Structures are given as C-alpha cells and as structure tokens.
Amino acid sequence: MEVTFLGTGTSQGIPVIGSKHPVCLSEDERDKRLRTSVLIEWNDCSYVIDCGPDFRQQMLRCGCEKIDGILFTHEHSDHVLGLDDIRPFFFKQGNISIYAHKRVLKALKKRFDYIFTTENRYPGAPSVNIHKLKNKPFKLGDVKVLPVKGLHFKLKVFGFRFNDFCYTTDIKSMKQKEKDKLKGVKILVVNALRIEPHYSHFNLEEALRFIEEIQPERAYLTHISHLLGFHAEVEAQLPENVFLAYDNLKITI
Ligand SMILES: [Zn+2]
C-alpha cells in the first residue's frame, strides 16, 4: 500500500493569502501546504480521503488518472470544496463512489445540490454513487476499512484504518473505545495544528501525547498551520518515530 500526502495544511493552507509571516514566506518547499488530503493506493485501487478546495491541483500534481472513490472525514469546507472537480474522472469512469456519514452526505447534498439532484440535471454535472458509513467496518476492494471516531470540538469526525495504516485528522479528543481500534497500527497520521492550544484541533503537545498513547511504529503529523513553525525546525525537535508530513510525501506500508 502506498500513501501520498496530497495536502498537509490547515484550512487556509500555507502560505496564507496576504500573509507576511516568515513561515508563509519560507522558500522551503515543505513549508508550502495545500489543504489536507491523502491518496491511498494498493493493487489496482486508488482512494482519496477528503476532497478540499485544492483537489484539482493535487490530482494534477500527483498525476492521478483514476480514482475508485472518495472517503470523507467530515463536511468542513477545507475537506469537501473540491467535489465539483471529480468531473474529469466522472467523464472517463462514470459515477464516482463517495463514502461518508449520513450527516456529511446531507451537508454535501445541500452544498452541491446539482450533483445529487435527479431532476433537471445539467448535462455537465458529475454523478456519484453514495455509500453511507456508520461507525462499522466496510470493504474497499479486498481491504477492510475501520472507521475511527473522534471529536472536532463537538463535531464527530471519522478517521480510517486500513490494516496497518490509520489516517486521522481534525481531532481534538477521542474516547478510549475508539482509541482501542488503533491498537497495533504501524503508521498513524494525526493532526497537529500549532504550538498554542486550539478548541477543535490537537496542538503539537496533544498530538504527541496521543501518539505516545497509541504507540505506532511511526507517526506523521498533518493539518498544519503556519503557526506551528518552519518544517525543518519543528521536525528536528520531534521524537525519533514522529515526522512532519509534507505535500507530495509518499510512504509505503
Ligand atoms: Zn480541516
């Protein structure tokens, strides 16, 4: 299984529009972060988790020619706004499968009514096959995927465990029962927004404490704000098995 980090930035991305913050002005490519998303590939399968406003650019950048589906963690704009850009895939492949909790599907239907409507459809509108997720395992190809529920302030969000790999983002807290699902995971992705605490995201300290509890072999931090600091400086201070993810990073599991 191969995972490509398509984006590792928080909701505004880095650089932030108009910002003169040193991290936003950094020339290190790793300090340029599109909105958070990953591409997961194995055998002939390729799935994307979340589909934010940078989806088009991310698909072009990684040279992706086919997707088998999109899994949604939650309905916030930085995770869903690129949905219209599934059109090139839809024209080639037909309906695109989307996987989400029913609350998230409801939000998508409201925002992208023309994609979901059955009447008076605009001919260029893409179509989707809807897969409603509960907090129960489901199958993608030959792989069992386990949703892992966390809280993003008060909003329930899903992480997804694919065998030895688990991707979570936009988490501030997780019940023990859900943490138990992460036992034995080899590679864990966790959000770490910044140094200062935040009401709906782990800060760096909370993310490291979470990783310490789960004890994966390796962990990667994502959904990063410019306020976390320069990639090179932050990564140098992390525990041996923890890394800052960056855009275009590929890992093999
Ligand atoms: Zn987010």
UniProtKB/TrEMBL annotation:
Pfam families: Lactamase_B_2 (PF12706). Keywords: Hydrolase. InterPro entries: Metallo-B-lactamas, RibonucZ/Hydroxyglut_hydro. Gene3D superfamilies: Ribonuclease Z/Hydroxyacylglutathione hydrolase-like. The keyword Hydrolase applies. Residues 34-223 form the Metallo-beta-lactamase domain. One of its GO terms (molecular function) is hydrolase activity. This is MBL fold metallo-hydrolase.
